[in-house]
Amino acid sequence: MALQVGIVGLPNAGKTTLFRALTGAETTGRDNVGMAAVPDGRLQQLADTVSAKKVTPASIRVVDVPGTGAELLGNLRQVDLILAVLDGWSGTRSAEADKEELVLELLAADRDHVQRRLERVAKQAKSGDATLRTEVANLEQLAAHLENLQAVSELGGDVEIPPELELLTVKPLMEIVNGADGIDLKLEAELAELPAEEAAAFREGESALGAVVRALVEELDLITFFTAGEKETRAWTLRTGETALDAAETIHSDIARGFIRAEVIRWDDLVAAGSHTEARRQGKERVEGKTYVVQDGDVLNVRFNV
Known about the structure:
Elements: E1 4-9, H1 15-23, E2 32-37, H2 41-50, E3 55-56, E4 59-64, H3 70-73, E5 81-88, H4 95-125, H5 130-147, E6 173-179, H6 185-192, H7 196-200, H8 208-219, E7 222-228, E8 233-239, H9 244-251, H10 253-257, E9 259-266, H11 267-273, H12 276-281, E10 286-288, E11 298-304
Parallel strand pairs: 1-4, 1-5, 3-8, 5-6
Antiparallel strand pairs: 2-4, 7-8, 9-10, 9-11
């Protein structure tokens, strides 16, 4: 499944404005999903080098679940990172107070989630199953920890956390202040609707939204690799440490299934050479197998047969 970022925020903090600015999508109901493009200056340089007809940036899946509370926040259990929008603009509350309330909401959602599982597993454990009894003991410790309003991420390594719980308070939490001390999300949403050249005239340097996406990439520990062809030049993301086979799977499952080899060139070597052919002639291209750990900036051409 694609990496996902979940946006949370108290009413009128600006989370839906951020969602719309990042994704260009309108909210359409209970589960609002869009894609946020990852800015990367290397992509256009590669596209120009190979005269690409289509240029596609990497993207991150963004989810905006309206409201808060245990039930709604539970819809964020499958996200990889939580992006908290804090009110720094209205004057009716502070960003610090927003964060405190949101953290309490996340703790309450996890506490209720763990308690429900504990009740179910405790009944099953009456059969005497040793595995279930161990899980009950772990869940009891988790429940006690959450009851004391402590995030699960603060818990020591002695307690085994069932991965299927998908607890919210173990996920990375990144904050954005909407206001003078952070980002003017209303302005960014308006600029996002303009052509890039017009929007740039209102800015000094990189857009605030671009900085947000870059921070998400860093927090998620992602790297970018590229595929560069005349038909399409495209950026893709992988977790740091993932392999050429993972990259092939990211591009298409059939490519991974029929993987033969990956032809790899560093992006700047390809730009300097001016073409794949010249980079190959200069000895800049190498052949790697499926266990090769992809590096940020690699340009991959995966050979496959299905």
